[in-house]
Amino acid sequence: MVWPYWTALCVYLVCERESGAPSPSPGSLRRIVVVFSAAYLFLLQEMSAVSNFTACRRFQNGFREELPFITNKFLTNNISSPFHKVSLVHSKRMFKGSNIRMTLVDERLSSRKVVVPSEILAYELVQGAKVRWSYIMEGSLPEPPTAILLHGILGSRKNWGSFARRLAQEFPKWQFLLVDLRCHGDSASLKKRGTHTVASAALDVLKLLGQLRLTPRVVVGHSFGGKVALSMVEQVAKPLARPVRVWVLDATPGEVRAGADGDDHPAELISFLSKLPKEVSSKRDIVEALIQEGFSKDVAQWVVTNLRQINPAGSSPSPLSWVFDLKGIAEMYQSYEETNLWKIVEDVPRGVHINFLKAERSLHRWALEDIRRIHVAEEQAVEEGGGVEMHVLEDAGHWVHADNPDGLFKILSFSFQGF
């Protein structure tokens, strides 16, 4: 694709010479080359939008800008501070001279869903109609507002898929980052060192944001993901360059209280799954086994979404295997029960607004003391420039985005308005 441009350049110079014009000076020649190179890069940009990432490359890490909340810990890892920007990884090849940024564009050129390999976490971007990926020269363009959606224990980014697409349709200037947390979904194959905790899961997400050079405006976490969202704020722990809204869906900052009998307790579910074989013949058998053990049909059907064919291309039916790392998940859930993040709620960094959403039918997960402390934090945060707020989602159990998606959509919507 390069040769037509250099051919055109040569023809232009020959025509200039034949017409009797003086030979261009070295400076003029350099300017001509720059013009033709810019035209070539512009065409690449347009082609990349059409081909949807057929030419993606890896960009260098370590990009750094002066912002007040960059910490030494992140700089030593070549990762900028959370809620900031560094470079994007696509493959093993390095490519210099341009960046991948998100830009607002005409609806006809939109790319609604983007999935790009990452060495940190598996993820996808669900994008509104006015957002797409594009190659551009180094420069400053407005970054579309980004929201992150975090799943709960034993879940995956797919849990948020339908809801994210609905948000993207209603708010076309936004993009929604869905991730598989460590030990879950496609991230289970990305081996992690150290212990599997709420804090380490939060750090993974912060590093991914750095890699993608995204600055989120909204962070939404369900259950375990809610504590991950709070831990992200705790690890930043400084005033942010722009306001960030954090939504903690049906999770408290402190002690996790056990449910009543028949409440599909995650610890019991993890324990039962650990006794099952790693390979199974059908999802139906697992659903029946879970129901017989006392788990609800809804939870049983949800759990088996983590089963995948071992050899999907084979001619005969392939056995199924679990995509998650159950041992790692057990560690993560234990950390979830023990992690106490009340401190960040009662001393919210300036620029952060924390919203707690309590599911009406999840009474066992909330004590009166939890609600009282949140209300006290609300009053204190107003005085200190932060924000804490409590919401109740009617007609919903713990699975808020499945039980009452319309009600949840209505409550969350105001976070995406005004852009």
TrEMBL record:
It comes from the Eukaryota. GO terms for molecular function: hydrolase activity. The keyword Hydrolase applies. Pfam families: Abhydrolase_6. Gene3D superfamilies: alpha/beta hydrolase. Residues 148-409 form the AB hydrolase-1 domain. Keywords: Hydrolase. Belongs to the peptidase S33 family. This is AB hydrolase-1 domain-containing protein. It comes from Capsicum annuum.
